[in-house]
Please model this.
Amino acid sequence: GAVVSQHPSWVICKSGTSVKIECRSLDFQATTMFWYRQFPKQSLMLMATSNEGSKATYEQGVEKDKFLINHASLTLSTLTVTSAHPEDSSFYICSAPLDRGNTEAFFGQGTRLTVV
Amino acid sequence: QKEVEQDPGPLSVPEGAIVSLNCTYSNSAFQYFMWYRQYSRKGPELLMYTYSSGNKEDGRFTAQVDKSSKYISLFIRDSQPSDSATYLCAALRGGYSTLTFGKGTMLLVSP
Model:
C-alpha cells in the first residue's frame, strides 16, 4: 500500500539552531502534503498545506518565516524549523492524501523534536 | 466549541471486552468520518472511514455514524492487548479539504 516516510524520527537540537524534517511519498505522487503538530495529549493541529511547485498555505497563527516548507518534487516535502526554541518541542507529522477526497490520508511516522 | 470532540480517556478494559469509542462533531458540512489508531511516538494509521451516515464493518472493527445526532462511534470486538493505542476520530467536509481531528482516546487493554 501507499507509504509516507518521514525522517528523522526524533531529533534533539540546541536552542537557536534549525532543524529540517523530510516527508516522502514512496510509491505515489503527492502534489499536496499536510504538516501537523501534536502536543502531548492533544489532537493533531494542521500547521500548513504544502503544494508542489508553489508556496505553502499556512494556518492562522503559524509563522511562515519560522516554519519553512519546501515541496520541490512530487514525492518530497520538507519542513524546516528555524531558530528553534524550547516551545517548538513537539511531535511533527506529515501526511499525504492519496486522492482528492483526502479520504485515504497516509501519515508519516512522525518526528519528535526536542529543543534544549 | 471544538468542531470534533473526543473524550481523552484513558479507557481501560480487560482482554476480550467490547470497546466503544465515541466522538461528537458540530459542523454539519462534514461528510467523511475516519478513525485512526496511533501507537506511542508513531504517526496515525487509518483504520477505516465512512461516508455520511451508516455502519461499516472490517473484521473486529465497526464504525458507525449518526448524522442526525452528530455522533461517531468505533466498536472493537474481542479486544486484544495489541489494540492498546490512542484512537483518533477525524472528519472531513469532502472535496479537497483538510481533516479535523478529535483529541484522541487512549485505550488500554489488559491481558
Q: What stands out?
A: Chain A has a mean pLDDT of 89. DSSP finds no helices and eleven strands in chain A. Residues 32 and 100 of chain A are 10 Å apart (CA to CA). Chain A touches chain B through 28 residues (CB under 8 Å).
